[in-house]
Amino acid sequence: MGPITKELVGVLSELILLLEGENEKRWSAWLMRSKSRIEHSDYSGIELTLSAYGGMGSFNDYIITGNLKSNEKLNALRSKAWKLAEEIKRSQ
Q1: For a disulfide at 64, which of 3, 35, 70, 85, Cβ 3.0-4.6 Å?
Q2: How far apart are the C-alpha atoms of 65 and 53, rounded to whole Å?
Q3: What is the pTM of this model?
Q4: Between these two residues, 28 and 1, which has the higher pLDDT value?
Q5: What is the pLDDT of residues 34-60, one digit of tens each?
Q6: What is the C-alpha separation between 21 and 87, in angstroms, rounded?
Q7: Residue 20 and residue 31: Cα distance in Å, rounded?
Q8: CA of 71: how far to CAs of 19, 37, 39, 76, 86, in Å?
């Protein structure tokens, strides 16, 4: 596993913890599947991560209600995960 992939796994782990802390089951489960596949060197985990973004009702649309600080963290991690996954995709 290369350094960018390791960084992505770390970011996904942080996102999962944040989402679980907010009792968000759908997206935490989605990201857990992505992370597991990536950790097992399965490229479909990158595709699964990227497929969470874009379109109505996507991960981009999810907000943590009533908590501005958590939303700021969510947005930063979400953006970083997408950028890392896109970088990995471009390198394939």
Answers
A1: 70
A2: 19
A3: 0.95
A4: 28
A5: 999 999 999 999 999 999 998 899 999
A6: 28
A7: 11
A8: 10, 26, 27, 9, 22
Place of tokens 């759908």: 26
Q: Residue 45 corresponds to which tokens in the numbers above?
A: 């985990």
Nearest to 13 by CA among 88, 82, 71, 81: 81
User: Residue 21: how many CA atoms within 13 Å on its side-chain side?
Assistant: 13
Residue 22, both tokens: 């907010």
Among the listed residues 45, 44, 27, the one whose alpha carbon sits nearest the alpha carbon of residue 35: 45
Residue 26 pLDDT class (50, 70, 90 cuts): very high
* Token pair in block for residue 71: 């939303």
Packing angle, helices 68-91 and 3-21, rounded to 10: 150
